[in-house]
Amino acid sequence: MWQVIGQDKILALLDYSLKSGDIAHAYLLLGPQHVGKRTLAISFAQALNCDGQGAPCGQCASCRRIWEGKHSDVISIGLGVRRAISIDDIRELQHLANLPPYEGKHRVFIIDGAEYLSVEAANALLKILEEPPPKLTWLLLASDDQYLLPTVVSRCQRLELRPLPREQMRRFLIESRQVEWSKADLLSRLSQGCLGWALSALDGDEWLEQRCQVVSKLSSLLDTSFAERFDYAQARAAELEKKHEPAVELVNAWFGWWRDLLLTKMNGMESIANIDYQDLLRAQASVLSLVEIREFIGKLYKMQQGLVNNANLRLMFEWLMVNMPRKELLHE
Amino acid sequence: MKLSCLQENLSKGLNIVGRSVATRSTLPITQNVLLAAEQSQLKLVTTNLEMATTCWIGAKVEQEGAITIPARLLTDFVNSLPNDLIEITLPPNSHMLEFNSGRIRAHMNGIDAEDFPPTPQINNGIITHIEADALRQGITQVVFAAATEESRPVLAGINTEFENEQLNLVAADGYRLALHKMPLASTIEQQYTVIIPARTLNELNHLLGNQQDPVEITINEQRSQVLFRLKNVEIVSQLIQGSFPDYSQVIPKSYTTRAVVDITEFMRVAKMSSVFARNANGIIRLLITPGADLNAGKITISAQAEEIGDNVSEVDALVDGEEAKIAFNVKYLSDVLSSIPQSQIALEISTPSSPGVIRPIGVDNYVHVIMPMFVQW
Ligand SMILES: [Zn+2]
Prior knowledge:
The complex is a heterodimer of chains A (332) and B (377).
Chain A: H1 8-20, E1 26-30, H2 37-49, H3 61-67, E2 74-78, H4 87-97, E3 107-112, H5 119-130, E4 136-142, H6 150-153, E5 157-160, H7 166-177, H8 181-190, H9 195-202, H10 205-220, H11 226-240, H12 244-265, H13 278-287, H14 290-308, H15 313-323
Parallel strand pairs in A: 1-4, 1-5, 2-3, 3-4
Helix pairs in contact in A: 2-3, 4-5, 7-8, 10-12, 11-15, 12-13, 12-14, 14-15
Chain B: E1 2-6, H1 7-17, E2 32-38, E3 41-47, E4 51-58, E5 60-63, E6 65-70, H2 71-79, E7 85-89, E8 96-101, E9 104-109, E10 125-130, H3 132-142, E11 157-163, E12 166-172, E13 176-183, E14 191-197, H4 198-208, E15 215-220, E16 225-230, E17 233-238, E18 257-262, H5 263-277, E19 283-289, E20 297-305, E21 309-321, E22 324-329, H6 330-339, E23 344-349, E24 356-360, E25 366-370
Antiparallel strand pairs in B: 1-5, 1-7, 2-3, 2-6, 3-4, 4-17, 7-8, 8-9, 10-15, 11-12, 11-14, 12-13, 13-25, 15-16, 16-17, 18-21, 18-23, 19-20, 19-22, 20-21, 23-24, 24-25
Helix pairs in contact in B: 1-2, 3-4, 5-6
The complex binds zinc ion.
Zinc ion binds at residues 46, 50-52, 55-57, 59-60, 62-63 of chain A.
């Protein structure tokens, strides 16, 4: 049983490959953060090594060791606190790549955040992919393939993970996780179809509280002085230095807010994510023009790119703050 | 788990298994050593996922059990203890291993033994034996010629050919090739070839130490793993998958000039030349001159480093054939000369652009080929 929800097409394809034994040397798992790439990767590694019935069974010793990250043939490298995945990481894997499985049946090397491979690392990986050893599958996880070497992409089978439709997510949260309707609705909106995100948010209420703080703060900056905005930029840069994932999350929160403003402006309120901020969204949307909103969303895209390219966080935030429209709001 | 053993034994055991502790770690637990108290022994296991070493030491076991402990911490601690009896205890449901020795006490936090990668079991397959001495010499004479880079993974291994009553070890890195043949102590029926990581054979060579007993070698049916059984120590190594390039064409079938020379003398002058050669891409030039009338033949070795200086020296040689010259990387020459236990070698060459061959005199079990360097003569 696959522990993956809502990726039926991909699962059907993988099931077929497993049955026919026609496993690709490398797959590229694409999709936004928390959409379930990692879960899919781990499940696939389980399926390739499962000793039980209906692989991945999730129950056998092999499946459990893989789930717990203890299996010596399923090795995962990621960004961690670093700014890039280095050539040394790839060399270490390259060394192991030509050895047979140690305890299982099939080696699986997972690169979580393939867009952060350094150029040398990506080239080293390409060399391995050009002469793929047997019984080894690479799983490259990335949010977008535009930051990957095209030559690497062309050697991978693409698997695009789709965000879960809002209804399906809400139903899942209510039925399988016993979440109350209004919370399930909010989570299904905020998560943009990324179940992993919704589940980690469920793990603790402090998380939802934190999100409230983040959104309240960023949404309050529209009518503040530049001095206050620079304080914000400075504080975030200090807080997020060397913390890549939280930085990406924050920029996503900004995206979420401005996408909601765009939807509100275009009378699409039904689709907004920050459903608990409807009044503020309406107030802000009424003083902003469509062009201003679109332009600022463009700036956020630039910021996102900057994060991938390891641009200076403080400079990026300051630039964003300067480029955000300033509006007086009518306070009731 | 509760046992006691001698510090000396534990220290020795840890030094043995310490050689296959993972250095960089993709899987953190591979930086630990597994301790398992079973029957009247303490079993120590480490793995770097390329090779796993298991060593058994004598111990008085009161209660069986197992745990893994950071190898570095444990080894440093045990090495610092006086040679005394050490009592090791793991309380039930605990990960805190307790050490008591005389007036010394220590605690170490470990990780569950269940989490340790299980050592590959090799029960059936092809079994053979080899004399420890022969194996030691064979490894010493080939392992340095294996590639250290990973660009061609099979070249980082030693091509190991079992042929009835013979074992051939071959290493090549693209610049040189070493082939050593040795007899097996027990014949096998088939012929087959596997590629053993050079690193494994290097470690095996260390662990062979002064062992006199023959070594048992088992290769599993899938030809994915090999087991070396030594006295109280077992090494399981992964085998490199792929096929070794056909090397037979690399070994020249003929030569125009053959020089027999004393190794010690040759080494001495090669070393001298390396002082200059190291500033000139390692290049040394050899000029082989046949003897005439009452004069003996000779090899003239020269090295020149631009703007630094040069040196020329000669060694006597028994030369057969015409005058000839060739340039080598001095490191490759020194590597092979220092691996040969005999007192003389034959250097066989033909043109400055074809490979040179070195064979020890008096035995027929070793061939070494060095690619020439292209230089202006
Ligand atoms: Zn299973």
